[in-house]
Amino acid sequence: MSHARTTPLIQSLPASVPFVGPEVQERAGGFSFGARLGANENVFGPSPRAIEAMQAAALDVWKYGDSASHDLRSALAALHGTAMEHIVMGEGIDGLLGYLVRLLVAPGDAVVTSDGAYPTFNYHVTGFGGTLHKVPYGDDREDLPALIARAAEVDAKLVYFSNPDNPMGSWWVGRDIADALDKLPKGCLLILDEAYIEFAPEAALAPIAIDDPRVIRMRTFSKAYGMAGARIGYALAAAPLIKEFDKIRNHFGIGRIAQAGALAALNDTGWLAHVQHSVARARDGIAAIAAENGLTALPSATNFVTIDCGRDGDFARAVLAGLTARGIFARMPFVAPQDRCIRVSCGRDEDLALFAAALPGALSDARG
Amino acid sequence: MSHARTTPLIQSLPASVPFVGPEVQERAGGFSFGARLGANENVFGPSPRAIEAMQAAALDVWKYGDSASHDLRSALAALHGTAMEHIVMGEGIDGLLGYLVRLLVAPGDAVVTSDGAYPTFNYHVTGFGGTLHKVPYGDDREDLPALIARAAEVDAKLVYFSNPDNPMGSWWVGRDIADALDKLPKGCLLILDEAYIEFAPEAALAPIAIDDPRVIRMRTFSKAYGMAGARIGYALAAAPLIKEFDKIRNHFGIGRIAQAGALAALNDTGWLAHVQHSVARARDGIAAIAAENGLTALPSATNFVTIDCGRDGDFARAVLAGLTARGIFARMPFVAPQDRCIRVSCGRDEDLALFAAALPGALSDARG
């Protein structure tokens, strides 16, 4: 018997590492990516004011961050027209999804998501012993009525739904999401992952009251605010649910530099508009490159563009391999028929130029 | 039935927030602390090179941190004369303790710690449903033989032991720790929390082989390296145990700025020596202030000094309240008889001057 007796649940988990970052790929392959367009990072970066605030906060990094994130939650409450008790900060949406699953999911509990949706959510559900039920995408969108119907069938405690969606970039009209909630079974909480919402049309915002007990919304500073490496996001929900996080969260887990940067980023609405504009322009640029190569870009409400490569998953995987070999970091959906596509994050002109230069060769190689 | 059905375990957890940071105290009381000496933060701060590295990394914060923390783990492996597979990074020791408990402790599993030792560890054990068995301190030190004996009695999966100890500042000779391991029962893992080890005499370092399966060591950049607000620490253990963390950790959870700062901090051994010297000087300063007030400072192998106030817990609590009222953030042990003491973190001369000015009045008030 080894000295570390892991639990039966831990013993049941896969030992493989499901998350392979670009640096890991670079080291494994002995090369460097020329364009980093695979992780839906915001290459336009954070507000210069946020950078300044983080640089100033570096001088104070000997102090733990405020365990209540008071100033930041206060600013977020003002932004959302609500009170601080509806907001909990977390170590990115990844961290918050982990906490939420831990709050609700005991071994064997049912959870519903879309087949091919955010893998980190699935990782947490499996990691806490939940049973995942997967619903296919419909027309390259997450199928909300089908998700809710499945939740009723399996008595799910949680349903994951992202709007806009990753990896397809598609979106729902917020009004339709709000209406669909009326069918949500009792005892089932909807996670509305809005990581990309700042890139979406205004109509995508779901008119759901902050104290609606059926929904928890997730937001992040990793995407539109350009701070993926700072690890900070938040959840919005009814106060009793938010309070539950205090039972298990790492109370000093939100870094001081991250809090300072996020607060400054929130206050620079001009920079956010600049990013939104730059992303919209890059979406058009990626779509044009796709069209020049005879491919179809799907409409996107995010900071990435999903490109239909026109054949099956093996073909798209070959295109992706060709891009990797040419120094372009991109990714693709895991599940058919969405895996006929590759996914390219919005970049600066120079990033897109590298992508445009690499794509014809990658396609030609894939076509053999 | 509410829409969020928390698990029975979560329902059993206390709703109160056990961690009250200094900012929370300041807001509640409507004042600002003049000296921040309560959280064992390193007021001497991180290396200027670490600050520079963090400021430079702020420009790249749009990128997620390296999910494998390759460069940092590589530098740590060199420091410890080992290989990267023995090292896992975490969101501070707090984050790593949470992961470790989750790996090993299922509801009802036995865990042993000292009564009055690190409360965040207890928080995680309770949070995952473990049963805590507490052993009293002996002579103001954690009682390692008694901890190990209790572990055998209750078939513990985990024993927590810190060296040096918080909150008492006491320490064990490392050789004695290594020898005591031979009595550790099969199937029981010892956590050796070395958060403060860089402040301790060299003899405190336990000569334990890196691949010894009986022990996992925890280290942090929050204390000697002055980066508490960056949230970064690491664990050292046998490779198979380290690999288990990959099943559950947040793979992109370590911030990019934190990684850059930690790497630069490690490379600035001159600054570490400066901090160690400044801390030793401040320990003497705090002891002198205690003596001037008729109190006894306990010997400290950490960056704080625990001061015996000479009466019972009620008296020490009154002294602490008097210090708080005078703008000094300090803390104290929770459990008798250690709660006869207050705990004061090492500060700069100006911090200690404020403490020296506040202590006589706090004592006089407490004596009523």
UniProtKB/TrEMBL annotation, chains A, B:
InterPro entries (UniProt xref): Aminotrans_II_pyridoxalP_BS, Aminotransferase_I/II_large, PyrdxlP-dep_Trfase, PyrdxlP-dep_Trfase_major, PyrdxlP-dep_Trfase_small
Aminotransferase class I/classII large domain ranges (all copies): 36-358
GO molecular function: pyridoxal phosphate binding; transaminase activity
Cofactor section: pyridoxal 5'-phosphate
UniProt KW keywords: Aminotransferase, Pyridoxal phosphate, Transferase
SUPFAM superfamilies: PLP-dependent transferases
Keyword Lipid biosynthesis: no
Entry similarity comment: Belongs to the class-II pyridoxal-phosphate-dependent aminotransferase family.
NCBIfam families: PRK08153.1
Name of this chain's protein: Histidinol-phosphate aminotransferase
